Amino acid sequence: MSEPSGWATPEAPREDDPARGAREATPAVPPPTGWGPPTGWGPPPGAGSTPPPPGYGPPPSSYGPPPPGYGPPPSGYGPPPGYGPPQAGFGQPPGYPPMPGWGPPARPKPGIVPLRPLLFSEIFDGGFQAMRTNPRTMIGISAIVLAVTAVLAIPVQAGLQAWLGSSLADLDSEDLSSTRASSAALESSLGASVAALPGALLTQLAVVVLSALLVVAVFSAVYGRKTSPGELWRQVRGRVPAVIGLALLTWLLVTVVTSLAVAVFAVPAVLLFLSDQPGLGVVFVLLAVAAAIVVGLVQSVYLSLAAPAMLVERVGPVRALRRSWSLVRGSFWRTLGILLVAYVVRAVGSLIITVPINLISTVVDSLLDNPLHAHFWPNLVSATLTAVGGTASGAVLNPWWSAIIALVYVDVRMRREGLDLELIQASGVQEPGR
After folding, report:
1. Can you tell me the distance from the alpha carbon of 131 to that of 396, in angstroms, rounded to the nearest whole number?
2. Average of pLDDT values for 130-150?
3. Side-chain half-sphere exposure of 251, counting CA atoms within 13 A
4. What average pLDDT does the chain have?
5. Which residue, 244, 192, 134, 252, is CA-closest to 379?
């Protein structure tokens, strides 16, 4: 029988092989035809250094070199570039800036707030930072303006109180009954409020103008620029008439719209009272009060950003009101929440400062025997004390309120218009990771 192609004759057994007898006793069975390694296959790499097992001979001459493409990888292959040994622990992926903790994305902070959409707490902290970093402008100008206003208003208030109080004193001397005395005390309080009204209107106008003008200083402080009092006056003195016009236009608009909303419920209330239906009349009165509060509050929020829009964007009063309305639209509840909290803080701070001084003023009136405010000089002393309290509280709280308004304006524009990118360019700082 002929051997199949590709098979070699086994090597002759050695004399000392213990399995020689068993192999000789066992008849040889030829392998099936066609069995064997494929033609052209060679030994695996490194096989030449290991001797073949017993019973196998050298490979047939038909084994040749491996087909093209087999063998060791080309010399140009190596480990992928840029990969090194694994580091212990987990780290940031390559190309990403470090993130030390959870929170908003890192942005530069050249001024009082970071140049990105602001958190609720950052707006309030930014208001205090605006006063702390630039007290001469923020607090100094406020104190000067309020002091000048008080000096102008105090003599008028003292004179009106003396005139109203003297007429009440004459009536009280004619009627000594306890009822008349109580009525005279109430009328005296009302007279004092009426006498303080001109000074209060003048002070309110000064506060509105001052708050609007301080917005410019706060806006500059956002990108790290400190504005001196003289520089601020040079920037805004040409806009003072526009600021006064904006204040009057805002007051007129809010008053007219709120009055129309109240009239919708007040007119039916009057008709119901006239038709002997007081129950429904009371309901409509309550609805009128609710309408006045809601409509007035909504308008105040929507128009709250008119002053910064007018001064920063250099537009007129009417355009500023429209601009404020468009900016707040879509951010109404957030703006309302911020302004309500700021208003409460401002009111509480004002009470903390003014209530003790007002109590001292009341004691002075008692000591000077001026319960009905019928004498000019005691009125002048008490009005001066009251003005000192108002000036002290306003010099701190009014700039803070202005800063809150300005930062709300900046925050809304950063969220909706990308103002943060413009401020980064204006400040000349680089974003982290760039």
Report:
1. 8
2. 91
3. 10
4. 78
5. 192
